[in-house]
Structure formats: structure tokens, C-alpha cells
Amino acid sequence: MRVAILGGSGFIGSHLVQHLVRERWETVVVSRRPAAGADKGSRSVSYVQWDGRSVDGLVSIVKRADAVINLIGEGVADKRWTPERKESILSSRINSASVLCLAIQQAAHKPEVVVQASAVGYYGYKYERKDEVEIDEFSEQGTGFLSEVCKQWEDAILPIENIIPRLAIIRTGIVLGSNSGFIKKQASLFKLGLGGAVGKGSQPFPWIHIDDEVGAIAHLIKDKAASGVYNLVAPNPCTYSAFVKDFGDVLHCPTFLSIPAWFVRLLFGKEMANEVILGGKIVAPRRLVESGYHFKYSLLQDALKSTL
User: Minimal CA–CA distance to 87: which of 148, 42, 44?
Assistant: First the structure.
């Protein structure tokens, strides 16, 4: 099996490379920074630089791949959402998916499967009903900037759906890993005694351990029946308050601090605060579980112990 990973030098990509090496798959890391964060110690991994725009440069890569995984996209929580930042978040996703789509259309030999990244932000950040409805892959699109980004991101890859055997779209939650930016920031705050609930703390916290993120991607590649949308989140949803409590317990740090919603909106802007920090959906991995995937970390505290 020969796998090409677009965006293979990032947090998820570098862990995925290591996982595929253990699977003994030949892996090609395609990135603007191909040497960053990847497994340099394996002969089964090669690195190719790609500017993210050139179709010709990508055709030669995808035509030799059995599977292609596209993880490219600017981080949504790295910086405050200015109009320029929002444009960068959107364009980085649509452009890479569109170019990949064109490259596969032009390739003489097409991959057996394409795995396209997306996010649970597709489902929006507000509850459309008063009760807390669990969301699965058959639920409708939500509202908000991230929902629209995910919709356009997914639409950009759909033209190849009928010219390759399988297209899998993965809507991922918050990925927990020891070297993730999210965990590093949280750990720093908690160790200073600044860890605590944000807003009411009742907002859903859809999470997945990095081992299950990459394990699920490999599972979808191997499963010849896998196609369509899959939610990559752990099967036991929790609230942000539950995350804070478990995080504090694992680190043996206090979690008495409560950060008011108004301060979060002042710090990050109302739109970003509401969508990224104060809102959310309870998301279930229905189709992933039905496909036979078994989670390594289904409980949050176990995942945090492994991570921290």
C-alpha cells in the first residue's frame, strides 16, 4: 500500500506517518515543509515539497498512490478571527481540496481511496432544540462561520466522488495528544492554577485521542466498504466542565477558577468565542463504530492520563 499524505508534517500528519510506518505502508509526506515533524528514521517514508497550488506538481504524486489523505488547513484557534484570518482559514482548505480534486481528475491512475479532512464544526455551535440532541453523520448542517467553512471544504472534494472507488470525509473533534497545541496551552494554565470552566462549562467537548484519530484513518483506508462521512470523536461525549475536572485530576491541579463568557468574548471576539470556546454539539461516531472500529481510548480520563 502506497499512501500520500497532504499536510503530513503537522500534528495529526506526523502521528499518522508513524502509524502507517508501523503498518508497513509506503508513505509519501506532501507538504510545504516536508521535513518538519515527520519520521526521518524510516526507509518507507519519503518527502515531497508542494506549494499547495500547483496541479501539475500533484498529479505525479497522486497517480502513484493507492490512497491519498488530505489534512491541509490553517488552524482555526491559533489567532483572533480578523477578516483576513477568516479568509485564510477558508481559502487554505478550499484551495488544497480543489487542487487535489483537479489532480486526481487528470491522473491516469487514480487512487483507490481518498480521505478528506473536515471537522465537527460542520454541525454548528448552537442547539437548534432546547434539549441536548446527539448529532451523528446523518444530522443536518448547522450555522456559523465554521459550519460554512466545513461545508465548502467538503464540497470542494466532491467532484471526484464518482471517479474513484471510495471517498471518506472525516469530521474530527478536538484531538488530544501530548504535543498538541491545545494540550500544551491547557497544561501551562492549569499548572499556574489558572485552569477552570469557561462560561457555564456546559458546552459539549467532542474529543478524540490522537491514537484513535490516526487509527480510525488507517481503518477507513483498509475497510473496502468505507465511504461517505465519518465523525472522528470518542464514543463517550462530555461537557467542558467534565474535561476541566478530569484534566485537573490527572495533573493534580486546582480547577476552581471560572472564566466568564463576557471576558472570553472580549478576548477573542464574539464570533470566535461563541463558535470555538463557548458553543458546540454533542457528536457521536455512529458510522465509525458501525464499521467495526474499536477505540483505544473511549474514556476521557484514560485519554488524558496517556496524553499528560
Answer: 148
Contact between residue 32 and residue 52 where contact means Cβ atoms under 8 Å apart: yes
Cell of 41: 528514521
Alpha-carbon distances, residue 264 vs 24, 280, 289 (angstroms): 45, 15, 35
Q: What angle do CA 7, 11, 14 make, to 5 degrees?
A: 70
Task: State the Cα angle at 287 between 212 and 150, rounded to 5°.
Answer: 80
User: Directed axis angle between helix 240-251 and helix 300-307, to 10°?
Assistant: 40
Q: What is the pLDDT of residues 88-132, one digit of tens each?
A: 999 999 999 999 999 999 999 999 999 999 999 999 987 554 557
Distance between CA 145 and CA 86 in Å, rounded? 8
Q: Which pTM was predicted?
A: 0.94
Reported as a single tens digit per residue, the pLDDT across 43-93 is 789 999 898 888 988 999 999 999 999 999 999 998 999 999 999 999 999
C-alpha cell at 159: 467532484
Beta strands in 165-234 (DSSP E): 166-172, 174-176, 196-198, 207-209, 228-232
DSSP bridge partners of 283: 135
- Assign 170 to helix, strand or coil: strand
